[in-house]
Amino acid sequence: MQLSELLTNSSAKYRKDILAMPVAALMDKALKHMTLHRGVAGDETVGAIGSDAEVRPYKTDKGATDTSKINARTLTTYLGDVLEEFDPYILFTTVYGEQFSDKTKRTDAEIVRDLSLAMGKSVSKKLGAALFNASRNPSGTTTATLFNGFDTIAANEITAGNISAIKGNYYEHAAITSSNVGDVLSAIYEAASEELQESDNLKMFLPRATKKLYDDWCLAHFGAAVYNTSYNKNVLHGTEENPCELVALSGMKNSPYIYLTTKQNMLVGCDQESNKEKVLVRVPDNPKVVQFFMCFFWGVQFQMIEKEFLLVAEPETPAETPAGTGTE
Questions:
Q1: Could you read off the pLDDT of 88-136 as tens digits, one per residue?
Q2: Three-state SS string across 90-125, please?
Q3: What is the dihedral of CA 264, 297, 259, 209, to 10 degrees?
Q4: How far apart are the first and last CA of the chain?
Q5: Which of 20, 77, 242, 275 could form an S-S bond across to 297 if both were Cys, CB 3.0 to 4.6 Å?
Q6: Alpha-carbon torsion (155, 159, 162, 168), positive or negative
């Protein structure tokens, strides 16, 4: 059987595996610091129930209060697609560095699966890179235009006045340099509400370049021997009792913000459960190539933006970038 026929006949068989690849490839990277919501094809109401209810001295009269409310937000996933035409023989040789005719290590079915999963893995890299800077444009042609990333959402909320210094969920800090990075990150932490500081799984999301500056700062202030034996370089110094994990992501390159929040508050939505998501492989008009088609849902959102759940920090001027980190 020709490879093109194998691909065409096997797309349905490997549908779930291929659709899962973009998510699976991110699970050990960005998604291990975020909360994945499956089964979201469109809009899903997220958020939390808030209440100021409290115990009081016993009273005979009712004197009821009404302080509870639902703070609702919407996690929106958008339908995107991949349409790729490729020569399967050339692709296999490129990806695996061996001739397709060598079947000593893989069966035909495994070759079909591996070729399709390679497509899904490429999709995953683009999704990871766009988690923060994506900006929804229905007329766009790239992953960065499929959905609104965390930076875009934050910028819109700042413009709307929902994230602000007055509300306690926004902090403007001094420009980060190699000499003050430790003090600035500590100042961001101290600017957060006590409720946020005491949260479980507290994380500070920041660009890799900023994390590199922080590592160098710690070595300069504590010395290599002391720092390597006494401090966890992935935890903000001074927060050891209730650790604030430093999460440096490549997708935050050039991000204007640093986020202090929890894993639970960083939502990533996908579907992977309905028949609206598809994987098709077929032979188009050109018999020498194969057409790979995949469509699926994707989107991100903050579960809550109140000061008890989120602090968005923005520098006055762009951060200093150390040598060797400009191509992360």
A1: 667 666 655 554 455 556 665 666 677 777 778 888 899 999 999 999 9
A2: HHHHHHHCCCCCCCCCCCHHHHHHHHHHHHHHHHHH
A3: 130
A4: 43
A5: 77
A6: positive
Buried b (16+ CB within 10 A) or exposed e, 16-38: eebbbbbbebbeeebbeebbbbe
Q: Which two tokens stand for residue 150?
A: 């965390």
What mean pLDDT comes out for the span 267-287? 83
Residues 110, 121: Cα–Cα separation, whole Å: 16
Is residue 1 a contact partner of residue 108, using CB atoms and an 8 Å limit? yes
Strands 266-270 and 35-37: parallel
Instruction: Sort strands 290-302 and 78-86 into parallel, antiparallel or unpaired.
Output: antiparallel
Give bridge partners of residue 177 from the DSSP assignment: none
Q: What does the DSSP assignment read for 168-226?
A: TSEEEEPPP-TTTHHHHHHHHHHHS-HHHHT-TTEEEEEEHHHHHHHHHHHHHHH-HHH
CA distance 89 to 280: 18
pLDDT digits (tens, 9 = 90+) for 288-320: 777 788 898 999 999 999 999 999 999 876 544
Both tokens assigned to 104: 């000593």
pLDDT, average across residues 239-256:
93
- pLDDT-derived band at 325 (thresholds 50, 70, 90) equals very low
Do 259 and 188 form a contact (C-beta atoms < 8 A)? no
